[in-house]
Amino acid sequence: MSVVASSVKWVFCKQNLEKHSQRVYDALLSKYPEEKVDIKDCAGTDLCSLCMDVPFVLRNGSIVHAKDERDLYFKIDSSMQFLSRERLVPLPPAPPAAEKKPETKADETPKLD
Q: How far apart are CA 54 and CA 15, in angstroms?
């Protein structure tokens, strides 16, 4: 089960790892070793309050946060499973374009033969 190559980039904050999310990081690397997972000293100065309060990770630049480690792992794992799921039903082709009928003006009445 592999995810589309380089479709997801995860960034963990070092401070948040120490306080909240180390086990999530370890589990993510264990289950998805081919994924891009980085650790930054600071994920962003505007995230400092979040960093100290709850576990979080940046997924392609967007914040994914949770109330605890278990919830964060569930969110990450759910998104990874969604991305790796095989599509069992292919999308049908688009229907052919309908032929356009000539337009009649509002004041003209169609001729009946």
A: 11
